[in-house]
Amino acid sequence: MKIIKITLITLISLILLLIVGLVAAVHLIDINRHHDRIAQVVYDQTGRTLSIEGDFEWGLWPELYLKGGPLSLGNAPGFDREPFFHLESFHFSVTTWPLRRSEVHLQTLQVAGLQLNLERNQEGIGNWEDLAAEPDPAPAARPHKKKDPGAGLPFAALALGGIQIDRVNVNWYDQASGQQAHISDLRLTVGALQFGEPMQLELEFTAASNQPELEVAANAQATLLYDLNAGRYAIKPLQAAATFSGPTVPGEQTTMTLHTLLNLDTETSRAKLEDFRLQGLGTLVQAQLAMHDLEAGIPGCQGEVTVEVADLVELLEVFDSPLGRQLTAVQDRSINLATEFTVDPQQGRIMVPKLTAKLLGTTVRGRLEADNIYSDQPEVLGGIRAEGSDLPALLAIAARLQPGADQQALSRALAGLRDRGLLAEATFNSEGADIVVPHLHLRALATELTVNGRVSKLDAELPALDGQARLAGRDLPLLLKVASAFQGGPTAQTDDGPPPGAELWALADRIAAARRHSFNLSTGFSAEPDLQRLSIDNLSAAILGLEAQMDLAARNLLSEPDFKLALSLAPFNPRQLLPILEVELPDTADPRTLTSLQLKAEIDGTPERFTVKPLRLVLDDTSIGGEVTVHDLARQDLAFKIEVDAIDLDRYLPPESEEQPVTPETAAAGTALLPVELLRELLLEGELKVGELKVSGLRVSNFMMQARARDGEIRVAPLQAALYQGEMDSTINIDARGEQPQLQTTNRLRGVRIGPLLRDLTQEQEKIRGRADISYELTTRGNELDEFKANLNGKAELSFQDGEVVGINLGRLLRQTTALIERRTFAADEQAVTDFTTLSGSARITNGLVSNQDLRMMSPLLRVTGEGTANLVSEEIDYLLTAAVVATAEGQEGAELDALQGLVVPIRISGTFENPTFRPSLDGAAQAKLQENLRRLQDRLQQEGRRALEDLLGVPLDRPDRKDPEAPSPQQQLEEELEERLRDELRRRLRF
């Protein structure tokens, strides 16, 4: 490395070349006649205007000299301050006669009145950048013979009278920030150069800036010692001083000084910096530094450095640093640093036997010994420890430096912190080719982190890691609120809703209200980036009342990742956890539900395709097991096989008081019954088994359902269960591919005890009992209730054996009618049931019209038949129910109906579902007999007849004081009251 020597040789060679050129120019060229041509060439090359305001002068004897000025160069386009460069005058000369002896005697080089205007615009573009454009690639250099470092100079002698540069002014303007800075009256003096003789250098200038508002008067002196032949150079000493003045300077004025010695030996490729001392502005920096192997890519060095800063804020405020303003509230603002180090890249050695630092109230101590760092088995040993007593102060500094941080929120979060200290320490050493970290410990904010691990594969792009870690804390809300403060705090808002800071603060408040402050996490870990592998072993976490265990193994993380995950959650209370996470729980009929949840699952696959097997879930008193396979997560294509031991779904339904009643009008008001778009996208295949199930009051067992959905076709088959000493077998098919979904369903109920079923379903006294067989096959299309009813087609059959109609005693009703006609009293305390041996019928449904032509009921007393229609669309009824007395009804506790044997009573049911009407229709003989008895009954209505009518009708009869000519006759009144009583009784009794 012979930079100075090469530079001097090059400079002198250029001067000689210039001398020869001047000699030729004096005789051949008159430059002053070509000012315009020179200016045009400069403009063509740079786009700038060159102004040569004065003539050039030159001569050959007794000195070869050149002088000129003034001259100036215009600014770049788009910049207004002119000129870019201006030079008042320059002069240089060489004694002519010594040149014949190859001796170069340069007189003093003089430059005066130089002005440079540097500027940067709003876009950040500088006015010098067009001049600094990269030149075209130079042609490949020819190979040359390496010069002997000790070879002499290409001239016999060299003498330099010196360099004198005066009145240099440099102006800086930044349009974007408004900053302006000026260097004024810069003077550089370089003393005379004689081979082997010391050379003096002096520099002085003044400077001023508006950002910061600061003035500086600086000067420097140095003595340069050199031996060009030996390649040795030294500056002994370099001394500089700068006086700062301005409103930001303590005392409005202070001086900073610099003293150092520098030695450079190009032959041995070594350099030394000695007695370096920078002092001022409450700062002292001292250093000793020795460097070697300077020609290497990274030279080696050894040294000592100490830094003392009495008040970092004052130092930063002098230069108007934003950091200084952010640190004003810090109490301990001093900095102390001392270190010793040795770095030898060639040997692969780094030694830091001592490192001590005190920064803003925090003390740091460390050491490092590293050898053979480029080998396969480096040797490393060291440790570091940082300890402070005022962590909130450090966090406050960080918050001031973080854009958008809420410093007030941070103060609120830390107000109640008892342990305000900080401790961080780590030790490390090498084992073979690995680095071992046996101990890493961090304690802060009532939280402790401990880690031990190993770093291997150090030659890879990213090394491998494995080890164990534990994180435990006593105040999770505190950590969340500190994190919130650094992300805007609790009151921050964005256009997209609450930012993370506000959400974290609210979460911390909910955790504190639930008294879930503590947390604990421990795990083993291993990461191999080169193999794209990651594993987490025996992770154990306890947080927010949740205890979890997890193992994870992941591969191909950067290509096609796949993983195996084992997860276990101990029983926890979702009603306590989910509100903390602001997850709204559904209202349930039983508030004791959702109070216990336990999970155990193993997941194997990729993020897009995976299997959960086995799956074990315990919800309250229900155990759920099975497996789930996700074939394509993006398309939600999944398969499942689930088994449930027992569950009461009614406990999980909304409370009855909160259910909104659905009337036919509201149900038909355009409400979609099926989620068509969801059904079209649904992709699933699965099986569900439930040992015991309760839903809507019904109790079933051995429930089994298989379902398949793909491309808009959904099939549920079989759908089976055992219920009420019988069994059910159903199928459901939905085709949602077309414009209107189509539904097809079949159902078979065999041997079902209908009484208990209805009692559980309605939570009321059942209206019919017996063993029932019911079946139907139905199809429809559409997605609104009206469409469903209008397009309903199919058939249905029902059969009841050995049953009872509860709530009406047809025998009693007939006996009452007979007693009334024959003017007899009757017993009122009979059981309100009607026995039957069979009740059967079938129906056909065509476009919403239900037709039944074969209703049959057989009992010891009656034979009942029925036929007619019910329109599901218009809700109109047209049905004829016929009852015939066939026996004495001994089984119905009476022998009074012999006279009625063979009597047929038809009842016409009409009207609508909401308001049906029931009207009896008697034949001629029964009508005549009824009329004859009514005439005889008219005279006895005061006593027995009136009581009989009141018993029959259930209401008292009016007792008019005088006869109303417009009042109905007793016959008409009896007919109307019989009709009304029959209609009301049938409407009330048959509503089941």
From TrEMBL:
GO cellular component: plasma membrane
InterPro entries: AsmA (IPR007844), AsmA-related (IPR052894)
Region (Disordered): 951-980
Sequence intervals crossing the membrane: none
GO biological process, one term: regulation of protein targeting to membrane
UniProt-listed Pfam families: AsmA
Residues covered by the AsmA domain: 2-264, 575-855
Highest taxon listed in the record's lineage: Bacteria
Protein name per its UniProtKB record: AsmA family protein
Species this chain originates from: Desulfurivibrio alkaliphilus (strain DSM 19089 / UNIQEM U267 / AHT2)
